[in-house]
Amino acid sequence: MAMRTSTDSVGDAVQDRQRARTARGVGGRAAPAGSRPTPPRRRRPAVALLGVLLILGGAALAGLLALRMDSREPVLVVKADIPAGTELTRDMLGETNVASESDLIVPVGAENNVLGTYARVPLNEGQLLDTSMLVRTNPLSGGQRAEVGVPLVEGRVPDDLDSGDLVRVVRIGEGDRPSQPLALALVIRPPVSSGGGGVLGGGNDAEGSAATLLVPLEVADAIVDAAGNNRIGMSLVDRGVAVTDTDRLRSLAGATR
């Protein structure tokens, strides 16, 4: 009986010590009243996958740009404006690097193949040289055409006359002599005003008041005579005509008014 009492006392003492430790916070921390347990962190695999895709996409784009840069090749470019019918020389050509698959663009290594050819149409500064713009035949070959220079007088010629313009050339009448159509001609070198007076130069500049025309040979003398007597007038027929379109050049000397 005494042993049972001793055992109960020991058990009571142990429970008392455990309650005291719990009260002091030893052996476990009681959760604050009214607080909720913190939920576990959720992983976001979609966000992580998007980040990986962005990194891979950026790397692929950088690689593509580097590949495009490496594929650029030096090609010929026009260094200054070249009128239609002008023979190409080395000083007219420069080079630039471009990425192009066109077979018409001329690589720098083929420069000798285009020297001595002629501009089929007007070429502009900075333009890539294209074989479709060139011809090997001199516009004057065959002895059927001639180049003539004519003075330009404001009011007698169209505004903004340019290389590649097809014009109707007329000798202006005087007195009892009526006007006479002379030719359909092609402007191959347009006028350039040195005095700031526009395309025509106001008719007062020593330079820049004349254009060069490609005309049928049989009316070349008549056009030169009319130009020398300041009796030239022109009307615009078409623009952007190539020097190879020689069938559009013809004499009008026998035409009626």
UniProtKB/TrEMBL annotation:
This is SAF domain-containing protein. The keyword Acetylation does not apply. Residues 1-43 are annotated as: Disordered. Coiled coil: none annotated. Residues 73-135 form the SAF domain. The chain crosses the membrane at residues 46-67. It comes from Aeromicrobium choanae. Keywords: Membrane, Transmembrane, Transmembrane helix. InterPro entries: SAF. Pfam families: SAF (PF08666).
